[in-house]
């Protein structure tokens, strides 16, 4: 059986934040349609924008992340902020 999806909210330090590479999606309607139609949606966005991509799906800000370095950086930020 698969483990349930877990969401981790991590407060970020504004002094070290850089803008995320993002798609030109304003409302997210076209991105949402592409997400449901294209099984390679995330891969195509990663190829175009890099290992961390921000877009809008169903009107909500959504961030896709891949790769050991990017995921390690995310968890390191969480560890530093939450004292894990």
Q: Characterize the main sheet.
A: 2 strands, antiparallel
> Approximately what portion of the residues adopt beta-strand conformation?
5-15%
List the strand order in the largest sheet. 1-2
Residue share in helices?
25-40%
| Rg result | 14 Å
- Give the distance, in angstroms, between the N- and C-terminal Cα atoms: 28 Å
**Mean pLDDT level:** 75
Quickly count the helices: 3
Shape: globular
Count of extended strands: 2
Low-confidence stretches: none
What does this molecule look like?
This protein has 84 residues and is of the alpha+beta class. It has a domain of 54 residues. It is 39% helix and 14% strand. The protein is built from 3 helices and 2 strands. A two-stranded antiparallel ribbon has the order 1-2. A hairpin with a 2-residue loop joins strand 1 and strand 2. The longest helix is centred in the C-terminal third of the chain and has 15 residues. The protein is globular, with a radius of gyration of 14 Å. The two termini are 28 Å apart.
Task: Put the structure in a nutshell.
Helices cover 39% and strands 14% of the residues. It is of the alpha+beta class and 84 residues long.
Element layout with pairings:
Layout: H1 29-37, H2 41-49, E1 52-57, E2 60-65, H3 68-82
Antiparallel strand pairs: 1-2
Can you tag this structure with a few keywords?
single chain; about 80 residues; alpha+beta; two-stranded antiparallel ribbon; 3 helices; 2 strands; about 15% strand
């Amino acid at each position: 059986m698969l483990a349930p999806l877990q969401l981790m909210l991590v407060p970020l330090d504004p002094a070290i934040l850089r803008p995320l590479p993002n798609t030109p999606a304003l409302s997210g309607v076209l991105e949402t349609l592409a997400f449901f139609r294209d099984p390679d949606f995330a891969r195509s966005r990663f190829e175009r924008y890099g290992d961390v991509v921000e877009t809008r799906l169903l009107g909500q800000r959504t961030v896709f992340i891949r790769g050991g370095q990017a995921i390690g950086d995310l968890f390191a930020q969480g560890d530093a902020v939450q004292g894990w």
